[in-house]
Every structure is written in structure tokens, then in C-alpha cells.
Specification:
The complex is a heterodimer. By secondary structure, chain A is α/β, with parallel strands linked by helices. Chain A is built from 21 helices and 14 strands. Chain A folds into two domains: 215 residues, no CATH class; 264 residues, Aminopeptidase (3-Layer(aba) Sandwich), CATH 3.40.630. In chain B, the strands form six sheets. Chain B has a ten-stranded mixed sheet. In chain B, helix 2 runs antiparallel to helix 4. Chain B is globular. In chain B, strand 1 and strand 2 form a beta hairpin. Chain B is of the alpha+beta class. Classes of the chains: A alpha/beta, B alpha+beta.
């Protein structure tokens, strides 16, 4: 403070210079404004670089996600769980009981019993163990078929407790292997039956245990859960449940189709991108490893670093590169993440457990990966018993660990901060791109046409111009309305019954309709071209959609950055009308390409009508119109 | 040890003298009944009754004055002091664990089987301290006596359902009327710390007589167990204290032989070595199977219909009653109970944290019409929308089932709802009542430490009644039926992240304050750029 009056020493001069720079002489406010302007000018001039960097960083980040160096090891967050801390009682006698049930079930399978007969038999078997049991009939009518089925379930009331909480052990009649192509989950059902007799012998259950053998693959459990929670659904008739229990906190779905198994695979993705609390997966993983000595895998992918059978280089990679541990690890984790993204983005989840998440129940499927050995009923029984004990320990709902994560391996995970920014960076880049086009549309550089090539900066003058917001907005609204109409047509029974014939017509109609009203779009002299405003809006809306979807369903958002972002960002009109038309047709075909995948289309509509998976409406009402807007951008005159 | 043996004789003599003395004005009886149930479980009920002859409850109008001295021999003094201090005429306290399964186990011998703690008392009015003040004192005193969280039965849970909880004894005809206070706490757990003070109230503790079978290791492992303290005044007889302990044990759980056999040793891991010398009667009643082969040892003193009766005081010691079935047990596929007129299933549907639907399904098993009072004493956490109440009989909408509805709405953060309605259940039919409810949004400090668990809601109470001609209810024999308790999820903040929440809120506050303050205190002037600096 008092140093100002002394003679200046040499080392103080740079400091003073710095001070001058920071607090210049003259009008401080004016300087600040000038500084601000200079900064904005710099940013505006370098905007293309910023956008490019953001796009590049986002995509590179996405590629880096499967790296074995990224993420960390899983851990148990909830102290109450205490996994693998109990001595299990499941023994060879119980394995024998499961074998007996299996024999009877094989007779039932070979005897081609109806689902009604089967459910009645299951009900009686539960009853013989002293557990109250009942059956539930249901039918779903979708625009394609009507599905009938009968579930069997039993409620083991917890001793010494009021039964306000419950946990579920379930097995669907059809196994997930081949997504319900008719493979019967026969050992899964016999495990559930044997568990009913076994678990009843112990008094330490603080929660009711509900055993459900659901009919079909996904439909039975959807009907049962809907009836349990009193939610109604159009097209569904389900008998009310005769016995209920309390609030269900956790559920284990058992899928054991083969004769023996080598690994227990964990499937966890739920409907519409929901995930169960990670503590449940981690507890199961530790219990299987320490209590039963079974290795856990994610899905049915075997780790090539541990399993020689899976140690094969893919066709595109020479063996010596594949043998680098990091490369091997990367490919294995990438495989897992791509599978995860498929399940999550499709919104259909990866199995029966996915239906539970919509009712705030944390659930996973234990999938016994079919193999020639070495594990069987003994290992799976012990794993389930110990996992139930862990779930039984819960005093509160699972809430401590993560609900947003990616599991690249059974013992590694990425928390949200490690993967979410990739998509957010891309969506920010899109937003910047859109905003820059928007602001460019508002200005026109007034120079003589002849001087265009000479690039004389000093003679140009910027003039404001009008931006045709209304026509751009009208186009957007029209495309979304078209999407809604397409959605309503696609979900009608007559379309679903013969998609092969109707979807090409639909495709042509969808591509042709926008051309009709686009013809009417004219450009006023002196105002910005409509395509600029439309493109700006299209980019901003896409960016907003992507960043919102990121939190709800990361995989869907990531797929959008792959399939939507380039289309939307690169759309531009051409000078000649023919090129414009070709470009438009190409873009519009991308928008409606999904119509040509008949089987997937039927599946997606079925998921919407039975499971309320919002992928079908999302594609029709959000994705297609956004791409269509990009197509219209291409078709508009410059 | 030696000293103990030397003292044993004089103390026994003293005991006998006291017993003889006490017997003039006090009478202690004990009884154990054991029933085999349909699903292979065994229900046992211990009853210890002390009658204080000629005594009467304290008149609340004399609460300010000096009370008469309390000299008891067998009557529990700790309890007597509480009763007289607060002027309580009738008191019922039950602490239960588990859910009584009426369909499988039939009607319980002791009515109060609602999960958790339930306390209700009839008290005379007219004292200088109000009934509510005395109720508060009573529950705090009982909380101390029984080591239970009865202090939590506060205003948030207290109601006055006089028609469903009619006095079991008589009420003195004082100037001021009697009032009832009732509260239940479903999340209360019962365990050893409650049994120990319970045993202390018994004249023989758990040293001799039937009470020696009360082994906490076995009783608290039972599928259902509960204890009760009932104080009733019978006009012309006196004040009666009835201490009960009920347990439903599962002999099939431990035995590998899949047989329903039971004995004192297998059920309680104890036998009776000595009778209680002050007990005027001490009997064990075991129900015998009606349509199965069995053997019972030792030979009962008396067999009445299908009941085997033993007198503990005269039986050979150690007494270990055994009932043996030669055949293994098989579970029946259908369960039905004649003693319960209807079965009840109550659920709270909907997975939303803001609203839900209360659904009550009542199935009348009888071929006659049954009338019953349906009572909900719901804390304010769940509020009813009465206009959405809908009744279906066998799936068909029928509002004629409901009548005589009384409703005291809840007051947020204080009073619970009292909802009582008379149901007329048609013969052999299923009645479903549904009602929309809204779930409360709690203050931050109102959440319990285990916030993510949810809140336990008390059971609904059904009281079968007959309606007399003048419109009043007369409860027939039988009694209340409790539904199961419920758990409700309320919107819960993420308490695991207080640090993040603090950072976020502070940032938002600082940011908005900073910008507003900046604009408010700024002076706006026009600045002109020098022309060469224009962009």
C-alpha cells in the first residue's frame, strides 16, 4: 500500500505493467465495454473452431468410454446389505427337491399342457409347501394379436413381521435366450418351486417373499405387476390378485434354461432406459463369487482375459494386436457397452426384470449361461439364498448407490460424470451451431456482387434483415403433426397385419407429403432465406431433445448423436433444383427408413402397446420430424 | 447357594402366609391354552389374571386430593400407581409382532392382534387436568414401564373411536362422562426388553407356574407373538388386570420329520418344574384333534369335548405335555375358518409419491348378511378424497353397502383422520371399497432417520355389530378384526447428499443475490465509443 511512494525497483515494473493492463487509464467503463466487445469478436471469429472442437471432443470421449483405463471398480455403498456374510443352508437335499420338480416339469412340457393347467399345477405345488398360492388369468389385445395366459404366484408371509415390505423371486415360463423364441425356462421354474419349500423353513425373513411364475416371456409379468399395483392399461384384461403383500422393494428374476451353467450373467436394463440400483448388481456379483464360487459376467459375454474359449480375435484385427491386453480389454468392454446401449436405447430392457423398474422396484435377472458345466442347482440355489438374505437386510429402499451407470464389466463401472459429458458436448456444439446460424440469418453483408471475390473487408457493411420465423415454425409444426399421423396409422391393426405391403406406400407418402406444402414456401426479398431459420431451429430443437434424453436414457441420446446429429448438422440446400430434390429424397428416406424393417417395426409397436415403451412414439413424433426438417432444409431454395 | 437353600423354607412360608392374606382381597389365576392350527402351526396363549376385589377406579374429580394408600400383595403395584395417578378406568395395551392370519388361524383368543403397539383407555372427565393431558401422562408412564416407544403415540396418532372400542368392563356412573383415547404405532417392534418388565408384574415372575414357560428365545422366534395388558373394572367384582401373551409357533419349521408334534420342550425349550404357590388356579388347556389319530402325554386330568385340561399345581413335575401325531403333516390346499365371519385385504396401490388408491376387499364367507363397522385412524400423511369412494359388490358398483358414515378430517401436521362407516356385507360376496388418497409432502425436519423406508400406517379395524332398533350398535360375541398394516412412500429428499444440496442452494442464492444487487446499485450512463474502435 505504501510502496507507491518509494522509487520503483526493477522487479516491480512488470507488476505495474500488468496492473496497467488490468486497470487501464481512461474511462474504466468504456475500457470494460471495449474488452467485452473484443472478447465477443474473438469468440465469434473462432466459433467454427469452438464448434469443431466440441464435436470432436464429444465423439472422441464416446470412443474412449470402453477403455479399460476409464471408470473404477464397483463397490457396495449401502452398509446394511452385507453381501456374502452369511452361511447358506441350501444343500443337496434341496437340490434333490429341485430335481424332482424338474422331472415333473419335463412331463408337463412333453405333455403340452395348456398354460391354465400348468398354472393350476404350479399353484398346487406351492400349496403343498404350505405357501398360499393362486393363479391369475390375463389377456392382452394388441393391434396384431390377442395374448392369453395364466400366471401362478405364491406369497410366503414373513414370520414376526407385518409384511409391509416384500421381495420377489420370479421366473418366466419362457427363457430369455432367443428373446422368448420358445425355449422354456424349465430349471428356473423348478428352482423357484424348490426355493418356496426351502425358504419357508427359516424364521429370519423380515420381508414377505413372493414367488411368481409368469406365463409367456414379458406379457405375463406385465399383467401380474399391473394387477399388483392397481394400474390399468388399455387392451389388458387381468384378473385381480387374490393374495397380495406389501411394498415390493427388490426382485430377482431367474433364468436357467440349459442343463448346467458356467457363469451367471446379470441382465439389468429396464423399460425406457431405467436401471436398477447398482448395489443390487454388486451384491449379487460378490455373493456369486464368494459364496457359490461362480463367476459373474455381464450378459452372456465371457471375458477373453479369463476365458480361453472366448479368446478369439475379431475378423478385422490381426492376432498380435489383439493380444495386447489393453486392446483385448477395450474390445470386451466395448462389446458389453454396445449390448447395453442396444437394450437401453430400444427401451425394451433386457428381460423380465425390466418390467419391475416402472414400479420403483430394483430388479435384475440372473441368467445361467448354458454350458456343459460345472455349476447347477446347488450353486444357483446358494447364490439366490444369500442374495435374498442380503436383500432381507435392507432397512430402507436401495438408495445409496448409483442409478446412472455403465457396466463395462462385472466388476467395473462408469459413473455418470465419466460418460454423460460426451453427449452433452455434442449437444452443446449443435446448440452453438444453431445459434450461430440464427444470428447469421439476422444480418446481411452489403457489398456489390462484383466485389464478392475480392474480399475487401473495409467496404462491407452489415445490415439487419428480417427472419421468417413464422414459416419456419409452421414447417416444424407440420412435420411433427405428420409424425403424429404416421404414428397413428402405423399402430392401427390393419397396418400391423400386413406391414410388408403397406410400409412402402407409407414411405412414399411420408416422403411426398412435405413436398406439397414446401412448394408454397416463398422468400420475401430483403428477409433471410427460410432454410437458414429452419436449420437454426432444427439444430436447437435437436440439441435440446438430445440433452434432455441424455438423463432419461443415455444410450438413446448417444444413438441420436450418431444418427441424428450428422444429418441435422450437415443439411444444406443446393443451387440446382435437381440436386435439391435428390438431397431431399435421401434425407427423407433416412427419416422413414425404419418403415422398411418390418419385424423390428412390429416388435417396437408391440412394446408400445403392451409394455408402454415410448420408442415407437419417440421415433414417429420426434426423430422422423427432426430428420424431415433437415430434409426440407435441403429442399428449400438458397 | 447354601444361603439360598436355607432361606428357601422361611421364604416359602412367608409366601404362603401372604398368599393366604392376599387371597381375601386379591385373586390370581393363570391359564395356558394350546391350539393346533390348520396349517400345522401351534397357537399358545398365556393368561395371568389378578382381580382386586371390591376395588374401584379412581374418580378423576378427586385427582387433586390425597389418594388412598395402595397395599397390594399380588396386584402389580407399578401398574396400579400409573392407573390411579392418571385416573384410568379401563386400559388396553398390546404389543404385537407379525400379521395375524385370520383365514388360516381363525379368530384369536385375545382380540387385540393389530401389528405393532396399540393403546386405548377409557378415562372419566371432570378432573382439573384434561383427559388429553392425562392420556399423555399415561402413555409416557407406560412407555417407561414397558420399555416401548409408546411416547410416540402422540397427537399425530390419537383418536377417539368410541363405537369400535367399547369398554370391555363397566364404567362407573360419575358426574362427568367417560372418554376414550386410542392410538396405534404399527412400526413398534416387540422383543425381550418388553417381556422382562411384563414378567416383573407377575407375582411368581417367570420362576414358577405357567410363566416359567415364557422363554424369550423361543417366543420371539414365533411366527406371530404379542403381549397384552388389560385393566378392566367389573361392577360388583373389582378391578381386574389381565396380562396375556400369545404366540403362534411353527413345529414344522424345525423338525425334519414334517410332523405336527409339539411338547413344552419343543415349543418353549422349557418344562414346568414348580407350580406358582399363590395361583388360585393354574391350568393348561390343550385342544385335541377332532378327526385324526393322536396321543397325548401325560394323561390329562379332565377331557371336555376336544379339550384336555391339566391342573399344574397337582400334576407331576416336571410337567412336559406332549401331543403326538403318528402321520406326517400335509398342508391343506384350501384354508377356511368358521370363527371369522369375513376376511379382509387392504392395500395401498399406485407407485406415485403424490397420490394413491386405498383398496379394501372384504369377503363374507357366511351365508347370512353381516354388518360391520369399518374404522380407519389414518395419520395425516395420507389424506382421503371421500368423494372418490366407490363400492363394488362382486364387481358391480353398489353404494348401498355403506351407511352411517362418520368422518373427522385430518389436520396437517397434527390430527389424524377418523373415518368410520357401517358396512352391510351381503351373504357369500366380495365387497371392494376403493378411495383415492393423497400423500403428504413433509417438512424437511419431519422425516425419520430412515427416510427412504416410508411410513407405517396403522391397521384398519373391523367390528362386527348388530344394529338395534334405535340405531345404536351392539357388538355381538366375537370382536374386532384387524387388517394388515401398510407402508406408504412419501416424497423424500435425498438426505445422503446434504453437501451437494448446500452447495447448490448457496450458489443459486449467491448468484441471484449478486445479479440483483448489481443491477440495483448500478448507475446507468451513456458511453460513446471512439469511432476508430467500432467493430
Amino acid at each position: 500500500m505504501d510502496g507507491a511512494e518509494r522509487p520503483l525497483s526493477k522487479w516491480k515494473q512488470p507488476l505495474l505493467k500488468l496492473r496497467d493492463r488490468l486497470r487501464p487509464s481512461g474511462d474504466v467503463n468504456l475500457k470494460r465495454l471495449q474488452r467485452k466487445r473484443a472478447l465477443f469478436a474473438l469468440l465469434t471469429r473462432r466459433l467454427w473452431l469452438i464448434k469443431f472442437t466440441l464435436f470432436l471432443a464429444g465423439y472422441l470421449w464416446m470412443i474412449y468410454i470402453p477403455s479399460p483405463l476409464w471408470g473404477r471398480g464397483t463397490y457396495i455403498d449401502e452398509n446394511a446389505l452385507q453381501p456374502a456374510q452369511v452361511n447358506t443352508n441350501w444343500n443337496w437335499g434341496d437340490v434333490h427337491a429341485a430335481d424332482r420338480h424338474l422331472e415333473q416339469l419335463e412331463c408337463i412340457r412333453d405333455g403340452n399342457w395348456t398354460s391354465e393347467q400348468r398354472a393350476r399345477w404350479l399353484k398346487e405345488e406351492f400349496g403343498k409347501h404350505g405357501v398360499v398360492s393362486s393363479t391369475q388369468r390375463y389377456s392382452f389385445s394388441t393391434s396384431l394379436t390377442t395374448i392369453h395366459g395364466t400366471n401362478a404366484y405364491a406369497v410366503l408371509a414373513s414370520p414376526r413381521h407385518s409384511g409391509t415390505e416384500a421381495m420377489i423371486i420370479s421366473a418366466s415360463w419362457l427363457s430369455r435366450s432367443g428373446e422368448g423364441d420358445g425355449t422354456i425356462n424349465i430349471r428356473g421354474v423348478s428352482t423357484v418351486l424348490a426355493l418356496a419349500g426351502f425358504l419357508k423353513r427359516y424364521s429370519y425373513w423380515a420381508k414377505d417373499i413372493v414367488f411368481v411364475v409368469s406365463d409367456g416371456y414379458l406379457d405375463g409379468m406385465q399383467a401380474w405387476l399391473g394387477a399388483y399395483h392397481g394400474s390399468s392399461q388399455s387392451g389388458l384384461y387381468a384378473e385381480p390378485l387374490q393374495f397380495t403383500s406389501g411394498v415390493i422393494w427388490t426382485a430377482l428374476n431367474i433364468d436357467y434354461p440349459g442343463h448346467s451353467f458356467s457363469h451367471l450373467g446379470v441382465f439389468f436394463e429396464g423399460l425406457n432406459g431405467r436401471l436398477p440400483n447398482q448395489d443390487l448388481i454388486n451384491s449379487f456379483e460378490r455373493i456369486a463369487r464368494y459364496t457359490a464360487g461362480v463367476s459373474v459376467t455381464v450378459y452372456d459375454h465371457l471375458d477373453p482375459r479369463a476365458e480361453p474359449s472366448a479368446n478369439k480375435a475379431p475378423w478385422f484385427l490381426p492376432q498380435f494386436i489383439y493380444n495386447i491386453p489393453e486392446v483385448k480389454g477395450y474390445l470386451y468392454q466395448a462389446n458389453n457397452i454396445v449390448r447395453h446401449a442396444k437394450y437401453q436405447a430400444s427401451g425394451r430392457g433386457s428381460g423380465v426384470h425390466g418390467l419391475f423398474h416402472q414400479f420403483r422396484i430394483d430388479a435384475i435377472t440372473l441368467f445361467a449361461v448354458p454350458a456343459m458345466g460345472p455349476h447347477g442347482f446347488h450353486a444357483i440355489g446358494r447364490t439366490i439364498e444369500s442374495t435374498l438374505r442380503t436383500m432381507n437386510n435392507l432397512l430402507e429402499r436401495l438408495h445409496a448407490s448409483f442409478f446412472f451407470y455403465i457396466l463395462p464389466g462385472p466388476q467395473r463401472f462408469l459413473k455418470i460424470g465419466l460418460y454423460l459429458p460426451s453427449v452433452i458436448l455434442i449437444s452443446v456444439a449443435m446448440m452453438f451451431h444453431g445459434l450461430s446460424i440464427w444470428s447469421n440469418a439476422g444480418w446481411v453483408e452489403e457489398t456489390l456482387p462484383t466485389e464478392k471475390e475480392s474480399k475487401v473487408q473495409s467496404t462491407t457493411k452489415w445490415r439487419r434483415r428480417r427472419r421468417p420465423i413464422i414459416s419456419a415454425l409452421c414447417i416444424m409444426i407440420a412435420t411433427h403433426t405428420l409424425g403424429l399421423i404416421v404414428f397413428n396409422i402405423v399402430t392401427t391393426p390393419w397396418f400391423m397385419k400386413n406391414p410388408q405391403a403397406l410400409s412402402p406406400c407409407m414411405l412414399v407418402l411420408g416422403i411426398a407429403t412435405p413436398l406439397l406444402f414446401v412448394r408454397r414456401v416463398g422468400t420475401d426479398v430483403g428477409s433471410a432465406p427460410t432454410f437458414m431459420v429452419l436449420k437454426a431451429f432444427n439444430l436447437c430443437l435437436s440439441s435440446t431433445v438430445i440433452s434432455i434424453i441424455t438423463l432419461l436414457n443415455f444410450s438413446l441420446a448417444a444413438s441420436l448423436t450418431l444418427f441424428l446429429t450428422p444429418v441435422v448438422a450437415l443439411s444444406s440446400p443446393a443451387l440446382s433444383a435437381q440436386v435439391r430434390l435428390i438431397k431431399y429424397s435421401a434425407y427423407a428416406s433416412i427419416a422413414f427408413a425404419w418403415l422398411l424393417f418390418h419385424q423390428s417395426l412390429v416388435d417396437v409397436v408391440w412394446s408400445w402397446q403392451v409394455l408402454s415403451v415410448w420408442l415407437a412414439p419417440f421415433i414417429c413424433i420426434v426423430y422422423t420430424p427432426l430428420v424431415l426438417q433437415a430434409a426440407i432444409v435441403c429442399s428449400l431454395p438458397c | 447357594m447354601l444361603l439360598g437353600r436355607r432361606l428357601a423354607w422361611p421364604s416359602t412360608l412367608l409366601y404362603l402366609c401372604l398368599a393366604a392374606l392376599g387371597s381375601q382381597s386379591e385373586r390370581f389365576t393363570e391359564k395356558l391354552t394350546i391350539n393346533s392350527l390348520q396349517d400345522g402351526k401351534v397357537a399358545s396363549k398365556f393368561t395371568f389374571t389378578t382381580l382386586l376385589k371390591g376395588a374401584s377406579p379412581r374418580d378423576p374429580q378427586k385427582l387433586d386430593g390425597e389418594d388412598e394408600s395402595q397395599h397390594y400383595t399380588l396386584f402389580p403395584l407399578a401398574l396400579g400407581q400409573i392407573l390411579r395417578e392418571h385416573g384410568v378406568t379401563e386400559l388396553h395395551l398390546t404389543l404385537n409382532a407379525g400379521n395375524w392370519n385370520y383365514d388360516r388361524w381363525g379368530y384369536p383368543e385375545e382380540t387385540g392382534v393389530g401389528t405393532g403397539a396399540e393403546l386405548w383407555a377409557w378415562m372419566g372427565d371432570g378432573a382439573s387436568k384434561t383427559v388429553d393431558e392425562r392420556w399423555k401422562g399415561l402413555r409416557n408412564a407406560l412407555a417407561g414401564l414397558f420399555c416401548a416407544s409408546l411416547g410416540s403415540l402422540d397427537d399425530l396418532r390419537t383418536t377417539s373411536p368410541a363405537e369400535s372400542f367399547v369398554p370391555e368392563g363397566s364404567l362407573p356412573r360419575w358426574d362427568a362422562p367417560h372418554q376414550i383415547r386410542h392410538a396405534s404405532l404399527p412400526s413398534e417392534h416387540v422383543c425381550t426388553e418388553n417381556l422382562t418388565p411384563f414378567l416383573k408384574l407377575l407375582p411368581c415372575k417367570s420362576l414358577s407356574g405357567i410363566a416359567s414357560l415364557l422363554n424369550p428365545h423361543r417366543l420371539f422366534d414365533a411366527d406371530w407373538h404379542g403381549m397384552g395388558v388389560h385393566v378392566v373394572w367389573h361392577e360388583g367384582e373389582g378391578v381386574e388386570v389381565r396380562l396375556t401373551f400369545q404366540a403362534v409357533l411353527d413345529p414344522l419349521r424345525s423338525l425334519l420329520g414334517k410332523k405336527q408334534d409339539w411338547s413344552f420342550q419343543s415349543l418353549y425349550d422349557r418344562t414346568i418344574h414348580r407350580g406358582c404357590p399363590v395361583a388360585q388356579s393354574s391350568e393348561v388347556v390343550a385342544s385335541l384333534p377332532t378327526n385324526a389319530v393322536y396321543a397325548i402325554q401325560p394323561e390329562p386330568h379332565l377331557v371336555e369335548r376336544n379339550l384336555a385340561v391339566y391342573d399344574v399345581n397337582t400334576a407331576d413335575k416336571p410337567l412336559n405335555i406332549r401331543l403326538i401325531w403318528p402321520d406326517p403333516f400335509t398342508y391343506p390346499l384350501e384354508y377356511h375358518s368358521d370363527s371369522v365371519p369375513f376376511s379382509v385385504r387392504r392395500t395401498l396401490r399406485g407407485s406415485s409419491q403424490a397420490w394413491g388408491q386405498l383398496s379394501v376387499v372384504i369377503t363374507n364367507h357366511r351365508s347370512t348378511e353381516v354388518k360391520t363397522l369399518y374404522l380407519e385412524t389414518m395419520p395425516w400423511l395420507v389424506q382421503f378424497y371421500l368423494h372418490t369412494i366407490q363400492t363394488r359388490v362382486n364387481g358391480v358398483v353398489n353404494d348401498g353397502v355403506l351407511s352411517n358414515l362418520t368422518y373427522i378430517p385430518s389436520v396437517p401436521h397434527s390430527r389424524p383422520t377418523t373415518f368410520q362407516v357401517l358396512l352391510t356385507l351381503p351373504p357369500k360376496s366380495t365387497v371392494e371399497i376403493t378411495m383415492e388418497v393423497t400423500k403428504a409432502f413433509l417438512r424437511y425436519t419431519e422425516h425419520p432417520p430412515d427416510a427412504q423406508r416410508g411410513w407405517d400406517l396403522p391397521p384398519a379395524v373391523f367390528t362386527p355389530v348388530e344394529v338395534t332398533k334405535n340405531g345404536s350398535y351392539s357388538p355381538p360375541l366375537g370382536g374386532r378384526i384387524y387388517s394388515s398394516t401398510l407402508l406408504v412412500d412419501l416424497a423424500t429428499p435425498d438426505f445422503s447428499m446434504p453437501y451437494n444440496v448446500i452447495i447448490f442452494t448457496c450458489s443459486v442464492v449467491a448468484f441471484s443475490f449478486g445479479s440483483i444487487f448489481n443491477i440495483l446499485t448500478r448507475k446507468f450512463v451513456v458511453l460513446r465509443f471512439p469511432p476508430d474502435n467500432a467493430l
